[in-house]
Design brief:
The complex is a heterotrimer of chains A (447), B (265) and C (391). With 447 residues, chain A is an all-alpha fold. Chain A is 70% helix and 1% strand. In chain A, strand 1 and strand 2 form a beta hairpin. Chain B has 265 residues and is an alpha/beta fold. In chain B, strand 9 and strand 10 form a beta hairpin. Chain C has a single domain, classed as ABC transporter involved in vitamin B12 uptake, BtuC, CATH 1.10.3470. Helix content of chain C is 74%, strand content 5%. In chain C, the strands form two sheets. In chain C, strands 1-4 form a two-stranded antiparallel ribbon. A two-stranded antiparallel ribbon of chain C has the order 2-3. The chains are: A mainly alpha (447), B alpha/beta (265), C mainly alpha (391). At the A-C interface, helix 10, helix 14, helix 16 and helix 18 of A face helix 8, helix 13 and helix 15 of C.
């Protein structure tokens, strides 16, 4: 008979000695080869990306873990990505959302503040570079659609790097300005106010095309400049990886790799900053506030000041990612900053586990793959069915007659909503719970 | 000069007057107890002293300056630390982290130095940690428990951690809200000695609320008795023991003075 | 007969009507005065000239000409907000919890009502209906919307909130946000599958779109027609009846007493033999029913609905509840009326007063501005409990 103990013994055996090393390498190899050989396969991608989980979960020495992770992220993924741009796009999306979720996680996971308008800070960063890194400054007197196309750019594209830092500061200041009046409020009110703030930013972006055209309204600002990409970088990339990739890599693709790597850099920065803060009086104060506000304030912790610090830190990373987004897409528009985006990022944090860095990254990857790949794949499949003569057997329903309004790719709300409800009911601490958080959510919090 | 002075302090909740024209004085280096039946307003009085409640009337002076209108964290930074009646440790933080939280406003580190890990930051953290270990030892907890989560400690241990956390703030005045509640006689004996040592060695003034009369009578130099939000008596343990108002408050009207033994148990 | 009249608490019936009249007249009068004064002040300045240039009408005339319609529109939407706000405020009063999904409860009510009317139209009944029958059909749609929303609200509470009772405050809130999003797409899915489209328009029938004309007011070069659309009157009337009914239910019946007891102190109420779960379900039922009715009324007034129709009315109604003082029924009424009026006034006159720089496009975020201001300066609302953080 199958016994649970035997199974656990078996698992434990798999996780000792050299076995985990072999397992990890095999997983990476299978994933990489599969992705390398199939141009558009979600399954292959999921197998490949889950090798990160194996790497994280299994018991190996630290240096192996770190170097395998670095090679995966810095070499294998970009190479596979430029070989097939389909994968690079997913990887870029995942890294952007992972960075945003990690930022939001500071606010929700560490300080326990529910921010429903988080993408507002993302918008602040995006519009900051969108305005200064485009022709918009000279387009101010013109209404959207009628500006001449030969307007000069205000700043050179390389100012992008400076603007990442400016955006960090501006987004943090915006966070402080918003937080100052509202952080005294009870958690649920704070949630609604931040939601409102997110909407305010979106509506402003939509309507500040008059009386002065600052945002170009619903059409958005384009083109937004990218930093210059020297030709030798493109050539170097081609010379080095050309053989494996199988075709000449264009400048645009190298740009995509570049932005992917920048997003990774932001992720690494956030992880560093968060873990260092966590191990200082600021992190201790955040945890204390989350545990018991009354005791925390009685021990001399200034509540509002500490909450502001969390709010501003989270906001600043969103600001930096906004600049990155504006440049990588060369386009900003209000649509990217809707309430649904904020909830999307929230869903990633909740799914992965509030307060848990590996959890949040897993959450971001899962939701992004589900959202961008699985739902869209399903849409594609449905539209193929519609064009076919296939009929659902028993009920005799012809796929042709299925409403064209039914487009699964647009059902993100259903996805986010279902994840939020199910996680809250069955696993409030998330897929990979933070050790502390898990115990806290299990306990009753009395007022 | 008095360390702490409460003048006509009144705190109301809606129609209920929880503390009524309370006058109270504390000299540097004293150990004073506030006693009284349940609901007499003792804890409310503590909460007004520490800024958790803002009194409707009256003045609270600490070292001659007013505390009214200050936030609790500001009051803590002026040198008043406290423990809570129903232990409020940060349960999911380790024992030593709890004590480190108590040092919050003494640490000079900030976000920048914490992120960039300046030498000054590392040095300060090491010193703080050493100091926290000292305090853990001082209140009588085995330092091997330092990394244990606070909520996993036995009840008596948690009370001690709370005291260590309060001491970490390096206060001039320590407010203890029923510090011996739920302890067995031996533990009670130990913490009573601990309070004396805190006063004698660290020169910290102590004000405590306590129901256990053995503790109160043994340790207090002065006792204040509250009932229905008012101070009904004040004096040395011997005076309080024989005060008829006090016995009335505890045992109801008609109780005779001779029954005070009952109260003392 | 005499005994029967004694069991009806007349005071509880009349009090809310008095309040509604007072709030409506008061709010309307204050805002009218403000805009008229502003118009008089700015008439000769650049603002007035700008308007003159654009529409060749003086600012004062423009203001006065628009005022009656703005007042009526403001009150209409105000009563809709009040009806939704009551759902938020009742649930908050009992559970101290923001039922974020209430906006979708509202939307479901609107859809059920509108779909019934569309079905009747397709069956040819609507066009054949006499005026009396038309009113009966509207009543039917209203009742159907109320029933659907009421039961949906109860079901949502059972499935998504009850298992989380006792969890930290943010846990049920996140679940409620999930429910809200989930329901939006469920409405969309059901509508797409059954009707092929999810933007629905309420059919025209009866005399609801006609205007009752009271008279004409000559105003310089223009003449203002004083009138009111019948559907606006219906919206206000139905809302008033419901609000009076709810007030009576809560303040003068046994169930109302139980609800108030649970709101005051749940453990004690439970010890007193009140079935707390049942009372909470009833609270959601009442809130959902009101929300559903508000949904149908909203569809009647604004004609077009989509699955996301609940989002802004929901948030504004929540703002109204906070503005009035959350947990307080009269407060929700006051907040709804005041917010409806404020918002409509802002939408109508902001463009004229800012020379076109900012206008009705900011109407939707106007409420958030109010919400933030209220929470900062008067967190307990105009007449309610304190929501700022306990120390």
């Amino acid at each position: 008979m199958f016994s649970k103990e035997k199974f656990q013994d078996f698992l434990a055996k798999l996780n000792t000695g050299y076995t985990p090393y072999v397992l990890i390498l095999v997983h990476i190899m299978i994933g990489a080869i599969w992705v390398y050989s199939s141009p558009r396969s979600n399954v292959a991608f999921v197998v490949f990306i889950s090798s990160l989980l194996t790497l994280y979960g299994l018991n190996t020495n630290k240096i192996f873990k770190l170097s395998a992770g670095l090679i995966l992220a810095l070499v294998v993924m970009p190479v596979l990505g430029v070989r097939n741009i389909f994968y690079l796009e997913i990887m870029f999306q995942i890294s952007v959302f992972a960075a945003l979720s990690l930022g939001l996680n500071i606010v929700i996971g560490f300080a326990g503040l529910l921010d429903l308008g988080y993408v507002a800070f993302y918008a602040v960063g995006a519009y900051l570079w969108g305005f200064f890194g485009s022709q918009q400054f000279y387009a101010i007197p013109y209404a959207p659609g009628i500006q001449p196309s030969d307007l000069p750019f205000l700043l050179p594209g390389d100012m992008f790097y400076l603007f990442i830092f400016i955006a960090i500061i501006v987004a943090a200041l915006t966070g402080i300005l918003l937080g100052l009046p509202v952080l005294r409020l009870r958690g649920d009110y704070l949630a609604i106010v931040t939601l409102g703030f997110g909407e305010v930013i979106r509506v402003l972006a939509n309507n500040l095309d008059k009386p002065w055209n600052l945002t170009n309204g619903p059409q958005g600002i384009t083109p937004v400049q990218r930093p210059t990409m020297p030709q030798f970088a493109v050539d170097g990339f081609n010379n080095f990886f050309g053989g494996i990739i199988g075709h000449t890599v264009s400048k645009a693709d190298v740009y995509n790799v570049f932005f992917y790597l920048l997003a990774l850099l932001v992720i690494v920065t956030i992880i560093q900053v968060v873990s260092r803060l966590n191990d200082s009086k600021i992190g201790r104060a955040w945890t204390a506030i989350r545990e018991d506000e009354t005791a925390a304030i009685a021990m001399g912790i200034p509540l509002v000041q500490m909450k502001l610090a969390a709010f501003a830190t989270g906001a600043s990373f969103a600001g930096a990612m906004g600049v990155l987004m504006a440049a990588s897409r060369t386009f900003v528009s209000p649509e990217s900053f809707s309430f649904m985006q904020s909830i999307g990022v929230l869903t990633m944090v909740i799914l992965g586990g509030t307060g848990s860095i590996p959890g949040v990254i897993l959450g971001a990857a899962t939701v992004t793959v589900l959202n961008l790949q699985i739902l869209q794949g399903f849409s594609l499949y449905l539209s193929q069915l519609r064009q076919s003569d296939a009929v659902i057997p028993i009920i005799n329903f012809a796929w042709k007659n299925l409403s064209t309004q039914l487009d699964p790719a647009k059902y993100q709300r259903l996805l986010f909503g279902a994840i939020l409800i199910l996680m809250m009911i069955f696993r409030p601490a998330g897929l990979i719970p933070a050790a502390r958080r898990q115990r806290e959510l299990a306990a009753d919090d009395e007022e | 000069m008095a360390l702490l002075q409460a003048i006509d302090v009144t705190k109301r909740f809606g129609g209920l007057t929880a503390v009524n024209k309370m006058n109270f004085e504390l000299k540097k280096g004293e150990i004073v107890s506030v006693i009284g039946p349940n609901g007499a307003g003792k804890t409310t009085f503590f909460n007004t002293l520490t800024g958790l409640y803002r009194p409707e009337e009256g003045k609270i002076l600490f070292n001659g300056t007013s505390l009214i209108g200050l936030r609790p964290d500001q009051i803590a930074a002026r040198g008043i630390a406290r423990t809570f009646q129903n232990i409020r440790l940060f349960g999911n933080m380790s024992v030593i982290e709890n004590v480190l939280v108590g040092m919050h406003f003494h640490l000079k580190q900030n976000m920048v130095s914490a992120i960039l890990r300046f030498d000054s930051f590392k040095k300060e953290e090491l010193e703080a940690e050493a100091c926290a270990y000292e305090l853990i030892k001082y209140v009588g907890i085995d330092t091997s428990l330092s990394n244990e989560l606070a909520k996993n400690l036995p009840y008596g241990g948690q009370r001690r951690v709370e005291i260590a956390r309060a001491l970490a703030a390096d206060p001039q005045l320590l407010l203890l809200d029923e510090p011996a509640a739920g302890m067995n006689p031996q533990e009670t004996e130990e913490v009573t000695n601990l309070f004396r040592r805190i006063r004698d060695e660290k020169e910290i003034t102590i004000l405590l609320i306590e129901h256990d009369m053995r503790v109160v009578m043994r340790i207090s130099e002065r006792i204040s008795v509250m009932d229905y939000g008012e101070k009904i008596a004040e004096g040395s343990p011997a005076q309080i023991r024989s005060n008829s108002h006090v016995i009335e408050a505890y045992l109801g009207r008609g109780a005779v003075a001779g029954q005070h033994e009952e109260m003392v148990k | 007969m005499k005994r029967f009249s004694e069991t009806i608490n007349v005071r509880e019936l009349l009090r809310p009507i008095g309040q509604m009249i007072a709030f409506s007249l008061g709010g309307g009068a204050v805002l009218s005065l403000v805009v008229v004064l502003l118009a008089l002040l700015l008439d000769q300045t650049a603002v007035g000239q700008n308007l003159q240039a654009r529409y060749s009408v003086s600012l004062v005339t423009y203001t006065l000409a628009n005022l009656p319609q703005v007042l009526i529109d403001g009150l209409t939407i105000g009563f809709v907000y009040a009806a939704i706000a009551l759902g938020y405020t009742m649930v908050y009063g009992v559970l101290e919890f923001i039922n974020f999904a209430h906006s979708e409860i509202f939307a479901v009510g609107a859809f059920v009502g509108v779909e019934i009317l569309i079905a009747l139209k397709n069956a040819g009944i609507l066009s054949a209906a006499s005026l009396g029958v038309a009113y009966l059909i509207l009543l039917l749609a209203l009742l159907a919307g109320m029933t659907a929303s009421g039961f949906l609200a109860v079901a949502v509470e059972r499935i998504a909130y009850r298992p989380l009772r006792g969890a930290p405050r943010l846990v049920p809130l996140i679940s409620a946000i999930g429910v809200s999003f989930f329901l939006q797409d469920i409405i969309r899915l059901v509508e797409s599958l059954t009707t092929g489209q999810f933007n629905r328009i309420i059919p025209t029938f009866g005399n609801f779109d006609e205007r009752l004309i009271f008279g004409q007011l000559p105003l310089g070069a223009t003449t203002v027609v004083l009138g009111v659309q019948i559907k606006s009157l219906i919206v206000i009337l139905v809302a008033v009846i419901m609000l009076v009914g709810l007030n009576y239910l809560v303040n003068a019946t046994k169930i109302g007493k139980a609800i108030r007891a649970v709101a005051q102190d749940r453990p004690t109420a439970s010890l007193m033999g009140i079935d707390v779960n049942r009372i909470i379900s009833i609270t959601f039922l009442i809130g959902g029913t009101l929300g559903g009715a508000a949904g149908v009324l909203y569809a009647l007034k604004f004609t077009r609905i989509d699955p996301f129709v609940g989002f802004f009315p929901g948030l504004k109604a929540f703002t109204a509840a906070v503005l009035g003082g959350i947990g307080n029924l009269t407060g929700a009424l006051l907040g709804g009326i005041v917010l409806g009026l404020l918002e409509t006034f802002a939408g109508a006159f902001m463009s004229a007063f800012t020379m076109g720089a900012a206008g009705a496009e900011y109407k939707d975020i106007f409420a958030f501005g109010i919400l933030i201001l209220v929470l900062i300066f008067r967190p307990n609302g105009l007449m309610g409990e304190n929501v700022s953080q306990k120390a």
